[in-house]
Inverse folding.
């Protein structure tokens, strides 16, 4: 949605029921051309879509690249595909981002997305058969604000739309081996069979038409259906990383 076309400059003027429907139908919505928001304004707007998930840092996460990161989301490396809240008690329905400063000059750092509902709807029956009934166990050490062990079916119904969606955390991320690696185990498979299955799945996710890499422009807002989408980040390139995002989790 472009504010320059709709005539609305303020997030507060958007029709929330309509916006929610678009997020659920499309997986994500980019809002461009709107006025910037303070943390308080972001929180106030997000609360119209639902209660917010409170982390130990509060509601608004500052995503700035850090020299000695505790978690690789603050590093320069690739972030594996995942959904937010996997290791938390509650899974947010929506991720709400605001871009305060882009890093388009240094390149890389695009936020990566896979619309897993669309992906599954375009799968061959052979692929679907492979994915059906798989259960994956994930383990990540809690270093920053998430970690633990969970077990999730690869395919499950979206809690709101009931479309089939995929829950997956991408292992084998070379950029994350030292900081916060994710270990996986596919139930009922040997570790070599499981790893081969996962590598094929990862290639499918990145190659599919449902994959999208978002290059941030200052002022962008993104609202993402966290139950339908997976997200990650391409590795940053070059020097002078200036990207600054804010993120709020809506329950
Ligand atoms: Fe995330």
């Amino acid at each position: 949605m472009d504010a320059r076309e709709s005539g609305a400059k303020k997030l507060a003027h958007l029709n929330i029921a309509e916006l929610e429907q678009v997020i659920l139908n499309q997986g994500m919505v980019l809002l461009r051309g709107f006025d910037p928001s303070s943390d308080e304004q972001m929180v106030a707007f997000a609360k119209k879509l639902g209660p917010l998930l409170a982390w130990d840092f509060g509601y608004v996460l500052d995503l700035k690249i850090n020299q000695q990161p505790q978690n690789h989301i603050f590093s320069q490396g690739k972030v594996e595909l995942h959904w937010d809240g996997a290791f938390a008690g509650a899974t947010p329905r929506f991720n709400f981002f605001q871009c305060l400063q882009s890093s388009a000059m240094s390149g890389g750092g695009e936020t990566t997305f896979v619309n897993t509902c669309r992906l599954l709807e375009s799968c061959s029956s052979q692929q679907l058969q492979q994915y059906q009934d798989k259960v994956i166990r994930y383990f990540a050490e809690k270093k920053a604000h998430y970690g633990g062990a969970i077990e999730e079916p690869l395919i499950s119904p979206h809690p709101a739309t009931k479309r089939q969606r995929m829950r997956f955390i991408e292992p084998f991320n070379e950029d994350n081996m030292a900081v916060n690696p994710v270990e996986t185990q596919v139930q009922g498979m040997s570790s070599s069979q499981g790893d081969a299955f996962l590598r094929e799945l990862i290639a499918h996710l990145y190659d599919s038409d449902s994959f999208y890499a978002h290059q941030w422009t200052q002022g962008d807002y993104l609202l993402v259906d966290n139950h339908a989408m997976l997200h990650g980040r391409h590795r940053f390139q070059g020097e002078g990383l200036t990207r600054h995002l804010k993120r709020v989790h809506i329950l």
In short: The first strand starts at residue 28 and ends at 31. The pocket of fe (ii) ion is lined by residues 82, 84, 231 (CB under 6 Å). Helices lie at 3-6, 16-26, 39-47, 116-121, 125-131, 191-207. The CA atoms of residues 93 and 251 lie 5 Å apart.
